[in-house]
From TrEMBL:
<comment type="similarity">
    <text>Belongs to the SH3BGR family.</text>
</comment>
<keyword id="KW-1003">Cell membrane</keyword>
<comment type="subunit">
    <text>Monomer. Interacts with PFN1/Profilin-1. Interacts with ERBB2. Interacts with ATG12. Interacts with BECN1. Interacts with translating ribosomes.</text>
</comment>
<comment type="function">
    <text>Appears to function as an adapter protein that bridges proteins together or proteins with mRNAs. May function as a ubiquitin ligase-substrate adapter. Additionally, associates with translating cytoplasmic ribosomes and may promote the expression of specific mRNAs.</text>
</comment>
<dbReference type="GO" id="GO:0017124">
    <property type="term" value="F:SH3 domain binding"/>
</dbReference>
<dbReference type="InterPro" id="IPR051033">
    <property type="entry name" value="SH3BGR"/>
</dbReference>
<dbReference type="Pfam" id="PF04908">
    <property type="entry name" value="SH3BGR"/>
</dbReference>
<protein>
    <recommendedName>
        <fullName>SH3 domain-binding glutamic acid-rich-like protein</fullName>
    </recommendedName>
</protein>
<keyword id="KW-0963">Cytoplasm</keyword>
<keyword id="KW-0729">SH3-binding</keyword>
<keyword id="KW-0472">Membrane</keyword>
<dbReference type="GO" id="GO:0005634">
    <property type="term" value="C:nucleus"/>
</dbReference>
<dbReference type="GO" id="GO:0005829">
    <property type="term" value="C:cytosol"/>
</dbReference>
<dbReference type="InterPro" id="IPR036249">
    <property type="entry name" value="Thioredoxin-like_sf"/>
</dbReference>
<dbReference type="GO" id="GO:0005886">
    <property type="term" value="C:plasma membrane"/>
</dbReference>
<dbReference type="InterPro" id="IPR006993">
    <property type="entry name" value="Glut_rich_SH3-bd"/>
</dbReference>
Length: 115
């Protein structure tokens, strides 16, 4: 399974740039393999991302903005969903991955199981 992060390399928005860096930096720091899919340089990436963000997660007007995160073809969420998953130590579950032993998320899951 490959995590795909759809980004815009030439975004004029500093907010979007920071969000993209935040997601990719977290994934890299935690040794989670991912593929960067640039929607600014590749029209096919832009089209695929826009078509595959579920209706319930699209903005009321306009198109979904990067970063958008997928596990292969399965939609995981946008930056806001990623941010909340990270705050809850649930990023691996958010990404559809198994948390590695010893990670905060694995520890939190084992505590829940013991209750």
């Amino acid at each position: 399974m490959v995590i795909k992060v759809y980004i815009a390399s030439s975004s004029g928005s500093t907010s979007i740039k920071k969000q993209q860096q935040d997601v990719m930096g977290f994934l890299a720091a935690n040794k989670i393999e991912f593929e960067e899919c640039d929607i600014a340089a590749d029209e096919d990436n832009r089209k695929w991302m826009r078509e595959n963000v579920p209706e319930d997660f699209r903005p009321a007007t306009g198109n979904p903005l990067p970063p958008q995160i997928f596990n292969e073809e399965k939609y995981c969420g946008n930056y806001e969903a990623f941010f909340y998953a990270r705050e809850d130590n649930a990023v691996y579950a958010f990404l559809g991955l198994t948390a590695p032993p010893g990670s905060k998320e694995a520890e939190a899951l084992s505590k829940k199981m013991q209750m």
